[in-house]
Amino acid sequence: DGGITQSPKYLFRKEGQNVTLSCEQNLNHDAMYWYRQDPGQGLRLIYYSQIVNDFQKGDIAEGYSVSREKKESFPLTVTSAQKNPTAFYLCASSVGGANYGYTFGSGTRLTVV
Amino acid sequence: GENVEQHPSTLSVQEGDSAVIKCTYSDSASNYFPWYKQELGKGPQLIIDIRSNVGEKKDQRIAVTLNKTAKHFSLHITETQPEDSAVYFCAVPNGGYQKVTFGTGTKLQVIP
């Protein structure tokens, strides 16, 4: 079955460490997105990519980095510069951008210890 | 950028009753309006969407209505069931249609 796989489901990070969240899709979608969700809050856009080897900053990109070397993969690195990284991270993809529905992964819950 | 307002933020209904959630938006050029359902600890799931050339769309117990003149669209759930309990988000394209702005979410509780 086609879909988006995020791993790991839970991730613990020590302060000062960089961590990378994985996002893989087999839907052949061109567009991919990373969102952050804090408890009881909505979805805030971190980065997005419309095509391989190209990506743009979203509304809260500071302290995060991404790459898009393959169509099916869009990993997110949470760097030590992100001062409050504890959150639920969601990856999504779309066949044609914002005028089409998004398919979301099941999320990664990151906790700083 | 696009301004999206979603109301109410919480909604409690008795099982079998109807629920309505409304979103208003600011960009009159927007032409695609999806609704997502997020269950606890999971990612959102697209449940229904509508394009601007249609005023209403139904899928079993759920429906979406669009008023382009007033710039609002609504999610209607009839004959609610406990499994409808979740957080619902609306979304509107913006930024040259490369990304969407999500509403702030509505927590729906269906009381058995």
Structural commentary:
The complex is a heterodimer of chains A (113) and B (112). With 113 residues, chain A is mainly β. Helix content of chain A is 0%, strand content 50%. Chain A has strands at residues 4-7, 10-13, 19-25, 31-37, 43-51, 54-57, 64-66, 76-78, 87-94, 103-104, 108-112. With 112 residues, chain B is an all-beta fold. The A-B interface holds A 4, 6, 31, 33, 41-43, 45, 48, 50, 56, 58, 90, 92, 97-107 and B 31-32, 34, 36, 41-46, 49, 89, 91, 93-95, 97-100, 102-105.
Lay out the secondary structure.
The complex is a heterodimer of chains A (113) and B (112).
Chain A: E1 4-7, E2 10-13, E3 19-25, E4 31-37, E5 43-51, E6 54-57, E7 64-66, E8 76-78, E9 87-94, E10 103-104, E11 108-112
Parallel strand pairs in A: 2-11
Antiparallel strand pairs in A: 1-3, 3-8, 4-5, 4-9, 5-6, 7-8, 9-10, 9-11
Chain B: E1 5-7, E2 10-14, E3 19-24, E4 32-38, E5 45-51, E6 56-59, E7 62-67, E8 72-77, E9 86-94, E10 99-102, E11 106-111
Which key phrases capture this entry?
heterodimer, A: 113 residues, four-stranded antiparallel sheet, 0% helix, globular, B: mainly beta, five-stranded antiparallel sheet
The helix count of chain A comes to: 0
Rg over alpha carbons of chain B: 14 Å
Rg estimate of chain A, integer Å: 13 Å
Residue share in helix of chain A = under 10%
Largest sheet of chain A: 7 strands, mixed
Using CB atoms under 8 Å apart, which protein chain pair has the greatest interface?
A-B, 25 and 24 residues
Helix-strand sequence of chain B: EEEEEEEEEEE
Main beta sheet of chain B: 6 strands, mixed
Give the overall shape of chain A.
globular
Helix-strand category of chain B:
mainly beta
What are the low-pLDDT stretches of chain A, counting only 5+ consecutive residues below 50? none
Number of strands of chain A: 11
Q: Multimeric state of these chains?
A: heterodimer
Strand content of chain B: over 45%
N-to-C CA distance of chain A: 36 Å
Bulk shape of chain B: globular
Q: What portion of residues of chain B is helical?
A: under 10%
Series of H and E elements of chain A: EEEEEEEEEEE
